[in-house]
Amino acid sequence: xxxxxxxLLLSVSVTMQVMQIDFERFEQLSGYDIYNSSLRxxxxxxxxxxxxxxxxxxxxxxxSVMVSSDFFHSRLGNQQFNHYxxxxxxxxxxxxLQRFYEDYSEYCEHVVNLPRKGECPxxxxxxxxxxxxxxxxxxxxxxxxxxxxxxxxxxxxxxEIVRVEVxxxxxxxxxx
Length: 176
Ligand SMILES: *[C@@H]1O[C@H](CO)[C@@H](O)[C@H](O)[C@H]1NC(C)=O
Ligand SMILES: *[C@@H]1O[C@H](CO)[C@@H](O)[C@H](O)[C@H]1NC(C)=O
Ligand SMILES: *[C@@H]1O[C@H](CO)[C@@H](O)[C@H](O)[C@H]1NC(C)=O
Ligand SMILES: *[C@@H]1O[C@H](CO)[C@@H](O)[C@H](O)[C@H]1NC(C)=O
What we know:
Number of helices: 2
Number of strands: 11
Keywords: Signal
Largest sheet: 6 strands, antiparallel
Strand content: 35-45%
Pfam family, one: DUF1091
Protein name: AGAP008958-PA
Bound molecules: 2-acetamido-2-deoxy-beta-D-glucopyranose
Structural class: mainly beta
Number of domains: 1
Organism: Anopheles gambiae (African malaria mosquito)
CATH architecture: Distorted Sandwich
Helix content: 10-25%
Shape: globular
């Protein structure tokens, strides 16, 4: 799920670009019997904000588990979020991960013990995220600035079983 959340943020991407994008907050909202996460956003040094910690997947995830997403945008960065009409196609968790690997495996550095390519069901495991800054290169130039809240959910038989939320801040990098 959190893996997918990463991939989701990244899949907004197409080209190389100079944006400053920082993690603001990560929070798991439900599904603690499925994921046990210690991920935290923290200031790494004077200029870098990173996400660090572990994601423990506690049960196997098979093709019956669907992944969906919701985007919210706060243009002024004041937490007044509006639902943003972007969506990724709802896919099952195995397809989602497969697509992620095809498109974004280059952004998996700093992340250890991801499921192997094509693994399905995805076996329980602990994934380690080591001080990972947001890969701003993955985001296109027209990406609107402000705060972005992205929520990702898992559903099983149309019942929501997990929801996580990440907030990132996008500003133009003035190259100073
Ligand atoms: C969740 O992970 C923490 C370590 O990050 C551990 O101390 C705790 O026991 C775990 N909780 C469950 C329910 O597995
Ligand atoms: C902060 O850490 C980042 C990521 O490791 C590094 O690229 C950058 O040079 C560091 N900045 C300072 C001021 O140490
Ligand atoms: C970063 O996460 C690792 C687990 O991947 C943990 O052992 C470490 O204490 C965390 N570092 C900080 C500064 O929170
Ligand atoms: C998929 O996982 C769900 C939830 O754990 C389980 O109820 C279901 O039987 C599994 N389906 C298959 C085909 O293994």
